[in-house]
Amino acid sequence: MELKWPEVRNMYPDQFVKLKVLSSHIENYQEIIEDVAVIRPLADESATKELLKSKDEDLVYHTSHENIVLEFRQDVGLRRYY
To answer: Do the beta carbons of residue 60 and residue 47 sit within 8 Å?
Structure first.
């Protein structure tokens, strides 16, 4: 079922949830998540484990956050010249 983040926050207050991202957009090196499907709520103890197992559009996020915003990080590598 497609939901907006505020709806998820109301359904699962102050807890981690595993989500599938259904729609998003990129803005200023950030991915703004718009629509999600809830896979299941998570206990605090299992959130990290579930995050590490997540693939593709799956995401673990805490409902205390007002919005879902993911920062793009650019890997900065060091180069050596010999």
So the answer is: yes
Strand partners, 56: none
Instruction: Answer whether 67's CB lies under 8 Å from 32's CB.
Output: yes
d(CA 59, CA 36): 10
Q: Cα dist. 31→14, 34, 43, 73 in Å?
A: 22, 9, 26, 11
Give the type of residue at 14. Answer: D
Tell me the pLDDT tens digit for each residue of 13-48: 999 999 999 999 999 889 999 999 999 999 999 999
- With 0.90 as the threshold, say if the pTM is over it: no
Tokens of 56: 């593709």
Both tokens of 68, joined, read: 């879902």
Dihedral angle over CA of 62, 66, 72, 77, nearest 10:
-60
